[in-house]
Specification:
about 200 residues; alpha/beta; three-stranded parallel beta sheet; about 35% helix; about 15% strand
Length: about 200
C-alpha cells in the first residue's frame, strides 16, 4: 500500500479564506444544490464552514450503478427550482444544468483518468459493501467480480479525511476486489474550489 499526501496550503480552508468573500453570501435568496449522495455530506460541511446559505438536496448514490436514471432523479430533486448540480458528467445527460467539471466526481479531488484504476472516496469506503458489493450483486454472484473488475490493476482511495477506521475499510474493499491499494490524501480543497466556481458561475 502506498500513501501520498497533499502539498501544504492546497486546501482553501487551510489558507484562511473567510466567509465574507464567498459568492454564496452575495445573493439575496437561498441557493439550492442538487448533489450526488456521495458528495452531499462534504458539500454540506463545506457550506457550513464557509458560511454559505445553501440547501443541499441529495440524490441516491446508488444511481452511479444506473447512470441512465440520474437525470430523472436530478429533475425530481430540483422540483422546478433554480439549482446547480454537484455532479460531474458521471455518464448522465445533465444538459441544461450547471454542474461540476470533469467526466467523474473523482476529478474534483485531483484525480485524472488513469487506466486500470478503481477510485474510492471516503463515502465509497464507508458504503462499499452496500453500494458496490451488494449493489452490483457480487454478494450473490461473486464470480462476477472478474467480469466487472478484470481490467483494473489497483484501487486508489482519494482520502478526504483519513482515519484508521476508513483505512481499514479501504483495505477491506481492495481485498474484496483482490487489488493493491494506494492512498492519496486529497482533503476537500478540490471540491471546495469547484463548488465555489459552480455557485459563482451557475444559474442559482
Amino acid at each position: 500500500m502506498r500513501t501520498e499526501r497533499p502539498t501544504a496550503g492546497s486546501d482553501p480552508a487551510q489558507r484562511g479564506q473567510t466567509a465574507g468573500s464567498d459568492p454564496a453570501q452575495r445573493g439575496q435568496t437561498p441557493r439550492v444544490v442538487v448533489s450526488c449522495g456521495a458528495l452531499a455530506l462534504h458539500v454540506k460541511k463545506i457550506a457550513a464552514r464557509r458560511g454559505w446559505d445553501l440547501e443541499v438536496r441529495p440524490v441516491p448514490p446508488e444511481l452511479h450503478n444506473r447512470p441512465e436514471r440520474i437525470r430523472a432523479a436530478v429533475d425530481a430533486a430540483a422540483n422546478g427550482d433554480e439549482v446547480v448540480v454537484a455532479y460531474a458528467h458521471c455518464g448522465a445527460d445533465l444538459t441544461g444544468y450547471s454542474k461540476l467539471p470533469g467526466a467523474h466526481c473523482y476529478e474534483v479531488y485531483g484525480a485524472e483518468h488513469e487506466a486500470g484504476t478503481y477510485f474510492l472516496t471516503d463515502f465509497l469506503v464507508r458504503s462499499f459493501d452496500r453500494v458496490v458489493w451488494r449493489g452490483l450483486g457480487l454478494d450473490r454472484y461473486p464470480e462476477l467480480r472478474d467480469d466487472y473488475f478484470a481490467n483494473y490493476e489497483r484501487v486508489v482511495w482519494l482520502a478526504q479525511e483519513p482515519t484508521d477506521e476508513l483505512l481499514a475499510g479501504a483495505e477491506h474493499a481492495a481485498g474484496l476486489l483482490r487489488l493493491p491499494l494506494e492512498v492519496r490524501e486529497t482533503g476537500e480543497g478540490g471540491l471546495e474550489r469547484a463548488l465555489e466556481r459552480l455557485i459563482r458561475e451557475g444559474t442559482c
